[in-house]
Amino acid sequence: MKLLRLIAFDEDDLKILSAHLQDALLRLEDMAFLPREHRFAAVLKRFDWLSAQSEHPPSDRFYERREAALRFDRVLGAQLRQLDLSRKGEVEELLAVNFEPTEPPSGYVELIFAGGGAIRLHVECIEAELRDLGPVWRTRRMPEHAAGAVGETRADDSGGDSPAASG
Predict the structure, then answer these.
(1) Could you tell me the pTM of the whole model?
(2) I want to staple 118 with a disulfide (CB 3.0 to 4.6 A). Which of 29, 72, 81, 159 is the partner?
């Protein structure tokens, strides 16, 4: 099993991170903004789109979700929209990660979730890392997208299927 490790320093790099994070599942309790360290971090279960594109028909195989860590450094502030941190255990589906520049190189990184929720990070500059942590969950469910939609929430797909053998 090859572990993914990506670093982003500009908007193009961030688009690559966003593609790998599309349909990742995040429990709200598994994220933190650390103001003293100027850091935002989260542990999530990303859908492995690369392995899903193999030659095997979907009915014959399992897909994979991989536990991964997402970190943003040089974060000056964080805001939430339509996300209730008091609802422990709630799972959100990440649809995209976008960047809105202000005075270069600073701007806002926005993590957009299904259902309209978002996390907006005010950053000095883009400095992010996505890293697989190792654990893999098998699932028969591939995230589905309606025409024009980006994703569907699959809260029941957060790791409850069978763990895959690591190695």
Answers:
(1) 0.82
(2) 81
Q: Which residues contact 71 (CB under 8 A, 6 or more apart)?
A: 39, 40, 41, 128, 129, 131
Coil, helix or strand for 149? Answer: coil
CA distances (Å), origin 155, targets 25, 110, 114, 143? 7, 21, 11, 11
Confidence of residue 141 (pLDDT cuts 50, 70, 90): confident
Which tokens go with 33? Answer: 């903004």
State the Cα–Cα distance between residues 107 and 112, nearest whole angstrom: 16
Amino acid at 159: G
Let me know: does 164 contact 136? Beta carbons within 8 Å: yes
CA distance 1 to 167: 6
As a whole number of angstroms, the distance between CA 104 and CA 13 comes to: 16
pLDDT at 34: 98
Cβ pair 107, 99 in contact under 8 A? yes
**Residue 69 per-residue DSSP state:** E
Q: For residue range 38-47, what is the model confidence (pLDDT) as tens digits?
A: 999 999 999 9
CB distance 20 to 51 below 8 Å = no
